């Protein structure tokens, strides 16, 4: 009797706590931390305030292998989220694992979106071989070259308006680094040399700038690509030997080298743009900075890039109402992605990316041209975030450029190792 | 008649008493082990069923260079840890054993302290101390070698460093076992030996060492099993690099299963590791025991 009474009381209380209509709770998983995380949490909060009938319950998990392992295991046993962020570079593995539901044209319509609203390259990256969409692209993010202008004052690398200019080849760039070093920059080019992502992104950019392919038709570094990989490692080794790049810098140290004014250049993802903007706004940076597209050092204009996207786990038994709520969330996020661009990213949703407000956004507008020459990771199950390619970067490329192995030998080991994973 | 009933009752009581253990053991160890062995003959992903492919995984393993690199690294790590940690623990135990009262308890506690720390804390402490830019041990390296050494990024330093951290972490338990063994040796033997004019070294050689041998053999075997299973420290500190110089079998199992979604292949590696550990440890224990009995 007592039990029934308590049950009734609890029931009455929960009714009182709920609004009169049935709100849809959308479980959301992401891997966004730092500046990204702050902006995404703000977006989720705004969405929840504007939509009394849909509530997003967000959980942030650790980026990389932990996130994708959890996604795979939870989705397989039917305990996955309703919507999650996903890297497009990870699509091939996600499709092989069968964790990504198809997003139909009706779904897109429910979100108020259509495929033609997005950059074609990102839609292609988000689709399977048959053209079925498995994720909705959210942004394009790449590495850029952050510049501390104070080391270039009075040189040919700054024009009258204070814009960075004249870096059109590897020789130009190395001249600029030597100049910055002479002007007192301890480590003229900072990037995360002791970190998988930092090393990989620079390596892949240098590969693509030679017109190279890391993986093509199931072959790792086929033909003359082996030589191009060796050349890329050789360039990075040279930067190490000259003392232009830091030795074994972990990610936070590589950022700190730039923000503390010790490095004239910094190669890193656009996601650090908010760090610079915030520091500059608080007058803590102490120098004039800008971010530009990675200069064309080796003939071909190309920059490593990836995309964040929204995906729905496969095999979930979502009600049509819930599915609609999830698509509403995705649609709203796309239409409000200008706030996301504040984290440095280029929106994948063209109405925002081509809007006047985005074109006025700095420094995004300066480097947004890179979207046209963005070099996505090879479409392979061993490439992408938290993949064997990333592991090989820390296992082989990073120690090689620190002088523990000859570049040619390192390229060969890279090839052998990755090929062995492609069975 | 009455006797038979009693025996039956005895059997029933005995069964019900061991049932909790047997059931738990079967459920959380035996069943998963059997499943893992079965899985190793399939091409299954991490979760879900695959097709029976016979010995294909094992054949592939035989041509996988990384497997042999890992096997070799496991062996190297065993060499770097098992005997050194046992010898060190014996030396520490002998020293502590000569201390008295509260001081002895205090010193023992100090040596045992690292053992109660979780592996993540241990590796974090050492990664800070050995940090290439800011580590407090780096000035020592700089004074010895003229420059700082990125120990986890240097192919020659990485395994010895992981081994040193592992010994620091786990040595306390071995010290404890040795102390227990030392306390089991009757004091009379030493008194008799000293009456006969035995030197300290002779006492150790003729009394302590042989009587302590069962404990030593046990520690060596436990250490061998434990160190063959090395994973956490490598995963947290060096991730198998550089150039696979710290790649070990369990890391390979983890990467194949959780990163590449190859449940079957990962199980095959795990089965091989299981067999290696079983064979090596049984062999070693028999060898050590027979030596002790001589």
From TrEMBL, chain A:
<feature type="signal peptide">
    <location>
        <begin position="1"/>
        <end position="22"/>
    </location>
</feature>
<dbReference type="Pfam" id="PF01547">
    <property type="entry name" value="SBP_bac_1"/>
</dbReference>
<dbReference type="GO" id="GO:0042597">
    <property type="term" value="C:periplasmic space"/>
</dbReference>
<dbReference type="InterPro" id="IPR006059">
    <property type="entry name" value="SBP"/>
</dbReference>
<dbReference type="InterPro" id="IPR050490">
    <property type="entry name" value="Bact_solute-bd_prot1"/>
</dbReference>
<protein>
    <submittedName>
        <fullName>Carbohydrate ABC transporter substrate-binding protein, CUT1 family</fullName>
    </submittedName>
</protein>
<keyword id="KW-0732">Signal</keyword>
<comment type="similarity">
    <text>Belongs to the bacterial solute-binding protein 1 family.</text>
</comment>
<keyword id="KW-0574">Periplasm</keyword>
Automatic annotation (TrEMBL), chain B:
<protein>
    <submittedName>
        <fullName>Carbohydrate ABC transporter membrane protein 1, CUT1 family</fullName>
    </submittedName>
</protein>
<feature type="transmembrane region" description="Helical">
    <location>
        <begin position="12"/>
        <end position="31"/>
    </location>
</feature>
<keyword id="KW-0813">Transport</keyword>
<dbReference type="Pfam" id="PF00528">
    <property type="entry name" value="BPD_transp_1"/>
</dbReference>
<feature type="transmembrane region" description="Helical">
    <location>
        <begin position="101"/>
        <end position="119"/>
    </location>
</feature>
<comment type="similarity">
    <text>Belongs to the binding-protein-dependent transport system permease family.</text>
</comment>
<keyword id="KW-0472">Membrane</keyword>
<feature type="transmembrane region" description="Helical">
    <location>
        <begin position="75"/>
        <end position="94"/>
    </location>
</feature>
<feature type="domain" description="ABC transmembrane type-1">
    <location>
        <begin position="71"/>
        <end position="284"/>
    </location>
</feature>
<dbReference type="InterPro" id="IPR051393">
    <property type="entry name" value="ABC_transporter_permease"/>
</dbReference>
<feature type="transmembrane region" description="Helical">
    <location>
        <begin position="264"/>
        <end position="288"/>
    </location>
</feature>
<keyword id="KW-1133">Transmembrane helix</keyword>
<keyword id="KW-1003">Cell membrane</keyword>
<feature type="transmembrane region" description="Helical">
    <location>
        <begin position="157"/>
        <end position="180"/>
    </location>
</feature>
<dbReference type="GO" id="GO:0005886">
    <property type="term" value="C:plasma membrane"/>
</dbReference>
<dbReference type="InterPro" id="IPR035906">
    <property type="entry name" value="MetI-like_sf"/>
</dbReference>
<keyword id="KW-0812">Transmembrane</keyword>
<dbReference type="GO" id="GO:0055085">
    <property type="term" value="P:transmembrane transport"/>
</dbReference>
<dbReference type="InterPro" id="IPR000515">
    <property type="entry name" value="MetI-like"/>
</dbReference>
<feature type="transmembrane region" description="Helical">
    <location>
        <begin position="211"/>
        <end position="228"/>
    </location>
</feature>
């Amino acid at each position: 009797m007592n039990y029934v009474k308590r049950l009734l009381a609890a029931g009455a209380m929960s009714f009182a706590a709920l609004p009169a209509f049935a709100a849809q709770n959308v479980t959301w998983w992401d891997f966004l931390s730092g500046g990204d995380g702050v902006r995404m949490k703000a977006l989720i909060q705004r969405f929840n305030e504007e939509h009394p009938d849909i509530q997003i319950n967000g959980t942030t998990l650790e980026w990389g292998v932990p996130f994708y392992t959890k996604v795979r295991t939870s989705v397989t046993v039917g305990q996955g989220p309703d919507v999650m962020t996903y890297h497009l570079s990870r699509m091939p593995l996600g499709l092989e694992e069968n964790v990504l539901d198809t997003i139909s044209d009706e779904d897109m319509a429910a979100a108020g979106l259509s495929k033609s609203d997005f950059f074609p390259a990102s839609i292609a990256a988000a689709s399977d071989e048959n053209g079925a969409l498995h994720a909705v692209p959210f942004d394009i993010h790449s590495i850029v070259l952050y510049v501390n202008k104070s080391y270039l004052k009075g040189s040919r690398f700054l024009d009258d308006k204070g814009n960075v200019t004249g870096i059109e080849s590897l020789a130009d760039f190395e001249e600029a680094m030597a100049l910055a070093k002479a002007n007192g920059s301890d480590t003229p080019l900072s990037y995360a040399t002791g970190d998988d992502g930092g090393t990989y992104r620079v390596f892949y950019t240098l590969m693509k700038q030679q017109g190279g392919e890391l993986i093509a038709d199931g072959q790792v570094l086929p033909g003359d690509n082996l030589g191009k990989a060796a050349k890329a490692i050789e360039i990075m080794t040279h930067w190490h030997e000259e003392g232009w790049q830091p030795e074994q810098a972990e990610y936070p140290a590589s950022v700190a080298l730039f923000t503390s004014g010790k490095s004239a250049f910094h190669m890193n993802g656009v996601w650090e743009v908010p760090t610079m903007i915030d520091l500059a706004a608080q007058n803590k940076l102490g120098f004039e900075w800008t971010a530009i597209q990675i200069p064309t050092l080796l003939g071909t204009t190309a920059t490593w890039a990836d995309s964040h996207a929204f995906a729905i786990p496969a095999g979930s038994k979502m009600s049509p109402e819930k599915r609609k709520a999830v698509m509403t969330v995705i649609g709203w996020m796309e239409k409000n992605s200008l706030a996301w661009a504040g984290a440095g990213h280029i929106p994948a949703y063209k109405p925002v990316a081509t809007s006047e407000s985005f074109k006025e956004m700095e420094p995004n507008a300066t480097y947004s041209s890179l979207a046209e020459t963005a070099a996505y990771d090879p479409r392979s199950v061993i490439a992408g975030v938290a993949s064997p390619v990333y592991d090989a970067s820390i296992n082989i490329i990073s120690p090689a450029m620190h002088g523990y192995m000859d570049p040619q030998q390192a390229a060969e080991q890279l090839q052998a190792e990755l090929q062995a994973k492609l069975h | 008649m009455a006797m038979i009933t009693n025996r039956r009752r005895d059997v029933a009581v005995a069964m019900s008493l061991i049932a909790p253990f047997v059931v738990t053991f079967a459920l959380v160890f035996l069943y998963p082990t059997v499943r893992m062995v079965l899985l190793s003959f399939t091409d299954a992903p991490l979760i879900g069923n695959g097709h029976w492919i016979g010995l294909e995984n094992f054949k592939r393993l035989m041509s996988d260079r990384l497997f042999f690199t890992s096997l070799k690294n496991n062996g190297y790590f065993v060499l770097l840890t098992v005997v050194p940690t046992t010898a060190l623990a014996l030396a520490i135990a002998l020293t502590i054993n000569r201390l008295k009262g509260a001081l002895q308890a205090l010193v023992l506690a100090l040596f045992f302290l690292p053992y109660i720390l979780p592996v993540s804390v241990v590796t974090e402490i050492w990664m800070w101390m050995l940090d290439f830019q800011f580590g407090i041990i780096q000035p020592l390296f700089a004074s010895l070698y003229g420059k700082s050494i990125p120990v986890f990024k240097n192919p020659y330093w990485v395994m010895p460093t992981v081994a040193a951290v592992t010994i620091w972490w786990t040595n306390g338990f071995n010290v404890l076992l040795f102390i227990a063994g030392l306390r089991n040796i009757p004091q009379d033997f030493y008194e008799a030996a000293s009456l006969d004019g035995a030197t300290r070294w002779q006492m150790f050689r003729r009394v302590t060492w042989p009587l302590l041998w069962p404990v030593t053999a046990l520690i060596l075997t436990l250490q061998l099993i434990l160190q063959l299973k090395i994973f956490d420290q490598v995963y947290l500190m060096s991730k198998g690099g550089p150039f696979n110089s710290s790649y070990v079998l369990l890391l390979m199992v983890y990467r194949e299963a959780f990163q590449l979604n190859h449940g079957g292949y990962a199980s095959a590696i795990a089965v091989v590791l299981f067999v290696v550990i079983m064979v090596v440890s049984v062999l070693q224990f028999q060898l050590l025991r027979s030596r002790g009995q001589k």
